[in-house]
Hints:
Helix content of chain B: 25-40%
Order of helices and strands of chain A: HEEEEHEHEHEEHHH
Mean pLDDT of chain A: 87
Low-confidence stretches of chain B: 1-18
Helix content of chain A: 40-55%
Shape of chain A: elongated
Largest sheet of chain B: 8 strands, mixed
Oligomer: heterodimer
Distance between the termini of chain B: 110 Å
Structural class of chain A: alpha/beta
Strand order of the largest sheet of chain B: 1-10-9-4-5-6-2-3
Number of strands of chain A: 8
Structural class of chain B: alpha+beta
Strand content of chain A: 15-25%
Order of helices and strands of chain B: HEEEEHHEHEHEEEEH
Mean pLDDT of chain B: 82
Shape of chain B: elongated
Largest interface: A-B, 37 and 35 residues
Number of helices of chain A: 7
Low-confidence stretches of chain A: none
Number of strands of chain B: 10
Amino acid sequence: MEVPRWLWFAGSGFALLLVAAMAFAIFEPIQVLPRLRLAPGYAMATAEGDVVTSESVRGSVVLYSFASTDCDADCAASFATMAEVRDRVTAGEAELGDVDFRLVTIALDADPTAAELAAASAASGADGTTWRWVAGDEATVANVVGAGFRLPLRGPDGGSGVDETVFVLVDGLGVVRGDYRYRTLADDADKLVRHVDILGREIRYANGASAVAYEAAHLFLCYP
Amino acid sequence: MSSTASTSTATSSSTDTGLAGPAADPPPTAGATSPWPRRLLMALAALALTALVVQLVGPRLRPHLYAGTVLQSPTEAPSLDFLDLTSGEPLDLAAFDGEVVLLYFGYTSCPDICPGTLARATLARASLPAADQDGVTVVMVSVDPARDSPAEAERYVTSFDESFLAATGSPADIDLATTQYGVFHQRSADTGATGGALDGGYTIDHTSSLMGIGPDGHLRVVWAPDVEVELLTADLAALLG
């Protein structure tokens, strides 16, 4: 049977578009992290008395962790992960370009003294610049950590702290892009660094015509 | 004497049956080319035509590209335990199901950013078709309950549009709501002057983003305070569906 020419035209074009769409979905030349929800607004203080606010870190990619100032052995793994992520990202393993990367650990115990906060910061490996510890009063901690970051603040024994290691990745617009819970996920520095890299690429390249492709990725792709 | 042999030769290969035999293949001509370049040209032409059609029809079929930041949150927008200052009744976001709510955290003494952002919201809403305007409600939550009385708040928001609502709550409720909506707010140093910020009183530093709650009650889009009116209008129309 002889194929009509107009059918050749239509079929060839459709086939090429279909192949392009499948290649986009299979090879994922563009990867994105989902925009989950807004990160909480807050104002909390460091051991030095500096006030860190959600507005002061706007424009930066921030990795949050949560720990009590007296948490040592249980938090050692999460502190090691934070330090590793900081070192690898600042060494250039994530393509952030000019975008600032910061780490913030929020103290889960309300109103720790400056000395307690400073000691916890030093013990964790925080450097006080890229990685800072912040604290607030009871209401602030309940709002920011409980209602804002959606962490269950008290464990079964009623003490302060949380039962699981949690990291939260927030972009420069104040949107939560990654929420890492449970030990099997939260201790994975490789995954955190990779996600910081994915976020950095989106921040740098999702401009102009590329913005359409990145929005299409948000709509149609599964997340890494 | 010469003789000419006459020969008779078969003059026809056909027999007299009335049936025509199979047509013989045309003899190969010099310079014959493969059909594949022609087919490749046809495929490229098909792609170009498809691209043209997509360019013309695509905008009608393509999902709207929002100017604001689209959230993929599956949860409802946090509830507000506030008082509607314009009606005196409790403000219930659930009452706006089926509508788009533009939520803004500001205060009446705000010197510049609040009136500018609310003006944009006013123009964007007014730019919608008349039938769609009723589907968009603008709510300003005052982060300055100490100075924003119900009368002052109502006067302020209705000066932009009669349909705008103002709400506020206790400082604890405001702290909780602003935290959940990613809004930072902090009172500046108190100058001791009475009256509003424009009269030398304190100002409140605050996040000035516009929040878009969709008809399903989910926080869907967040806009920067300087979003262009035309883009905000288009986003509102897309949210309304």
